[in-house]
Amino acid sequence: MQQQPNYNKDFAKVYDELMSGTKYERWESLLKDLIKKNSIKKGIALDIACGTGAISKMLLDMGFSRVYGLDMSADMLVQAQEKLKPYGDRFQVIHRDMANFSQPQQYDLVVSFYDSINYVLNPEDVQKMIGNVRNCLNLGGHFIFDMNTKEHVWMSQKNPEREFKINGGIAKFKFSGTEDIWQLDIEAKYENGRSFRETHLERGYSSEEIGKMLREANLNLVELISENKVYWDKKEHLSRQYYVARKDL
User: pTM of the prediction?
Assistant: First the structure.
């Protein structure tokens, strides 16, 4: 699996600040509804590409007995551990990339949010990751995840450059890409002269592609939720999709 983005220490420290305007409230409500609707046991959960632990915290607050946060960035895991320190040993971290993990621990729920799986650019690695998820799910366990669509990637390639204020400086987002790959270049400059850069690449996947991967991994797709968005062209496009899969065999 291509190891991107870097998620270095500087970026990890400002990640929550840069992403503060995202859909965390929407995701919390969605997770609560899906957990209730599917009678998901609030036992042990795995948060894939957990980042700084926002989703892990939601699951712990919902009553899951233990949550494991998996991420390939050690610096992001440091931030997650600091944020979730009040939960003690109910939160544990796993330093792995999502395409190459295997776990003796079995989970009642596996989640992955914030289009993290789109960062896996090779479809074969996505298939491998889904297979790994199936292997570590309890029978009847669920895998809930979101993905940006191909339409989202195509439209985001042409987004205008954006500028954000961060504590002590400015961050700029520059968008580009070709075909099904979207590139986001992030540059942050601080008043004290410090700076850092990050390059993020995402691949767009269709529901047909992901549905096929789930079937090949013997996971049953029980629900697909679509979300539209109005982009720079002032038109509404299919932007993000939420998948709910279950291990029945």
Answer: 0.91
Residue position matching structure tokens 């919390």: 28
C-alpha 240/C-alpha 52 separation (Å) is 21
Q: Which of 88, 105, 9, 17 has its CA nearest to residue 54?
A: 17
pLDDT at 3: 43
**Residue 84 CB contacts under 8 Å (≥ 6 apart), including other chains:** 53, 56, 57, 60, 69, 91
Beginning with the edge strand found earlier in the chain, give each strand of the sheet holding 137-148 in spatial order: 91-95, 66-71, 44-48, 107-112, 137-148, 236-246, 220-230
Q: Which CATH class is domain 9-148+205-246?
A: alpha beta
| Domain-wise residue ranges, the chain | 9-148+205-246, 153-200
User: Dmax over Cα atoms in the chain, in whole Å?
Assistant: 57
Q: Which residue has the higher pLDDT, 198 or 17?
A: 198
pLDDT value, residue 16: 59
